Amino acid sequence: MKICCIGAGYVGGPTMAVIAQKAPNIRVTVVDLNQERIDAWNSDTLPIYEPGMEEVVKEGRGRNLFFSTNVVEEIIAADIVFVAVNTPTKTYGVGAGKAADLRFIESVARTIAEVATSDKIIVEKSTIPVKTAETIKKILAANTRGLNFQVLSNPEFLAEGTAVADLHNPDRVLIGGERNPAGEKAMQTLVDVYAHWVPRDRIITTNLWSSELSKLVANAFLAQRISSINSISALCEATDADVDEVARAIGYDSRIGPKFLKASVGFGGSCFQKDILNLVYLCESFGLPEVAAYWNAVVEMNDWQKSRFATRIVKTLFNTVAGKRIAIWGFAFKKDTNDTRESAAISVCKDLLAEMAEVVVYDPQVPASKIRSDVLGDGVTNDRLVVVDTAEAAAVGAHAVAVLTEWDEFKELDFKRIFASMPKPAFLFDGRNLLDLEKLNAIGFTTSGVGK
User: Fold this and answer.
1) Which of 4, 5, 271, 349 is catalytic?
2) Active site includes 283?
3) How many helices (H) and strands (E) does the chain have?
4) Distance of alpha carbon 358 from alpha carbon 327, whole angstroms
């Protein structure tokens, strides 16, 4: 069997690397038009950082895992074509700011219809709105060679930072297809691929539309829990309650459970906000404004939490940060990834720069060029945004430190030395509730956590 995956990003690369690792009898090729990205996948410096991924890629690369820009050639050769291209939120026209931009999905479908010379199974791996498969099927059916294509939905449920572990031991693999003999056969073919390592009882098959919608709903529910506990964090700060203690108390309820009840400066990443806004747009499109408003409130709460954190820094530093050095520890949206999409750090840095602060950023995995472009825009410079190589360097001379990513290395720092390097009073704002604030207070820091 030959598998081709179109899209060499955070979904396509890791997923195909693990399939190649676990199913050595299958030839897996990841294709992308971005030559630089493909070159990186073929090098010793992979384009994305995930714990354990380098070992998986090196095990399969050259054996049954390949990375190529020969899109047409690999589509023609493949039995199964995964589509893992980007589906960003539209920035123009109808649905701008909410709807998914499906031009890349459509382009891929048209390419497959144009170049394919045999029947194929097409697998939606990108996060897409419900009923997108209908569009793909219509485009594929318009091919002039009488070929038959089966379209399946196989959404990813990876968490960045643990993607390899999630792929090795998934909670579930969801496969949606048409409930007819051809659709059932196609689903079974994909089930057999995952069955190389995933227990059969964890592979769920549904109809196409249930599968497409399940991805959006899963992310919406997870984000809702974060926004819910973040809303309570504000109440905890107003009442001297401790949000971690509240979360622990309610998490013991088996109906609620403890996961995704960690208060923070706000959620980020490529999926949560994008998928919720997509869900909002779908609800509006189907005449369900009350449902749309409900889910939109999850995003509004997250935006408010990020803004509230920056405002708290300004108020605590005597209502002005103009000319003051503020150290930002962590820029990725979460630890163990170099992904900065929708990172809370972007919003906080922008707010502090708008208050005329000097913002000094350190992150162990995000390049300085990426930090600058995310905060300022491509080609824009600002002398008050500085990127340094260590957390200690960021803190030297800083009036305050703000922890915005929960990197483990921040717990191992010499805080006595850091305190000595800062003007007094020395403030520390823990946006991830990562550090032991009592110990930091004993050193002399004036500390603030989220919901504390």
Assistant:
1) 271
2) no
3) 17, 14
4) 9
